[in-house]
Amino acid sequence: MTKTNFSLGDFDFNLPEALIAQHPPATRSASRLLDGRATALVDRQFTDLPNLLQPGDLLVFNDTKVVKARLYGQKASGGRLELLIERVLDAPGETACEVAAHLKVSKKPLPGAVLQMDGGFTATLLGRWPEADGPLYRFRLSSDPYTLMAAHGHVPLPPYITHTDSEVDEQRYQTVFAKNPGAVAAPTAALHFDEAVLDRLADRGVQRASLTLHVGAGTFQPVKTDNILEHTMHFERFEVPGQTMQAIAECKARGGRVVAVGTTSVRALESRARFGPGCDDTNIFITPGFDFKVVDLLLTNFHLPKSTLMMLVSAFSGYEHIMALYQHAIEERYRFFSYGDSMLLARRVAV
User: Fold this and answer.
1) In sequence order, which residues have a C-beta less than 8 Å from that of residue 21 and are 6 or more positions away?
2) What is the rounded CA–CA span in Å between residue 66 and residue 212?
3) What is the spatial distance between Cα 225 and Cα 329, in angstroms, rounded to a whole number?
């Protein structure tokens, strides 16, 4: 019998800590690929992907670029602090240098406090964001945020990666086609692609299109309500260009399949389909029962227990199938999370 009523515990599983990938594989496409399109699961290599797709299929990538958004500094009292810049608030051409950021410090400073940041610049606390009691903090930096992050920031590695960022992370926690800066987390399913795999996909007749969704730190936030529908999703900025919408329409018309590379691409595509071209900031929450309008196949990594992404993939391929897939992945010692292995899923067709 298919399960229909879900609580948070339904999306939990026991993951051995040794399976949490701390470093990327030697080469991008050297990861494994669990083929979960059918009930019978098949263990493959990521380099098998071109042979699993068909001429006329359309891969949709997220071309966001991870910025070095983690900054360190101190209060006037000398207490150390960390800022994780979630969003640059100024439009292009503006010079107010305001950002919304997470603040990690022993005792929160008051509005007006001037923080001395490593690298010799300052961050002035203006208040909370986006509302007076919002979850983030609004700061004014002493010069251009993107310039300061590039010069003094650190790669915002996820909380389950325990080492400090390195030159390797600066290169590998970024896709080969990253273009539009603004993400504080990588669209990790796309980290597996290198030029050799992309060339083989093109030779096979698989088409490519891009969108931009700036992944926020909220992607790592745990769901804390037992009733999952009471969870409040974080907002993420996105854009699906007109040429991508046209490519999707042409793909559907020729009988091809839209293959979303990563859950971020799913969120952007399904938000665009649901809310229209005027929407550029989404907090869409995809849970079992969701009616998918665009995506046919999903390439994704393995996600955190009790996360909104576990709920998304369960909505896409069916809860029982996903839980069986994860159990298989654990038994076969797949590598989990951002630097881990991948899986290919098919959209469950309602019967």
Assistant:
1) 335, 336, 337, 338, 339, 340, 341
2) 12
3) 27
Q: Is 237 helix (H, G, I), strand (E, B) or coil?
A: strand
Q: Quote the pLDDT of residue 222.
A: 80
- Cα 212 to Cα 140: distance, rounded to the nearest angstrom: 26
- How far apart CA 13 and CA 220 sit, in angstroms, is 16
Classify the phi-psi angles of 267: left when phi > 0, otherwise alpha if psi is within -120 to 50, otherwise beta. alpha
Alpha-carbon gap, residue 197 to 201, rounded angstroms: 6
pTM above threshold 0.85 = yes
DSSP 345: E
Helix H or strand E segment including 44: strand 42-45
CA-CA distance, 253 to 263, in Å (whole number)?
24
Q: With cut-offs at 50, 70 and 90, classify the pLDDT of residue 221.
A: confident
Q: How does strand 80-88 pair with strand 70-74?
A: antiparallel
Q: What is the mean pLDDT of residues 280-303?
A: 97
254: CB partners within 8 A, 6+ apart: 56
What element of type H or E holds 202?
Answer: helix 195-204
Q: How many residues does the chain have?
A: 351
**Cα torsion 139, 140, 145, 148: sign:** negative
pLDDT at 117 over 80: yes
